Amino acid sequence: QVQLVESGGGLVQAGGSLSLSCAASGSIFSINNMSWYRQAPGNQRELVATITRGGSTNYADSVKGRFTISRDNTKNTVYLQMNSLKPEDTAVYYCNAMVVAGILNDYWGQGTQVTVSS
Fold it and tell me: Which of the residues 4, 25, 34, 91 has an alpha carbon 20 to 30 A from that of 53?
């Protein structure tokens, strides 16, 4: 069994910064892509950023230049540094990992709330 445990998040004023982390544990052979998604009330879950095992990254247009995704393969951990936060960034943030543990499976974290006040 594989678990993703998120930490970070909270309440911040507009223009501030927050950092999220997500650690995978369990019977893991390797992890391919790791991603952050977010879901605001009444909205669909949307992709925020993705990082490959080799470190290539991709971002949603709405966060480019403000958010940075990174990972530590030795710790099976993905990070999201969020700067210049805006009220519209308010959402529950979820990490996702494509984990090879015998077979390739898709795992999700429990979600962490990020609230940006104006």
Answer: 91
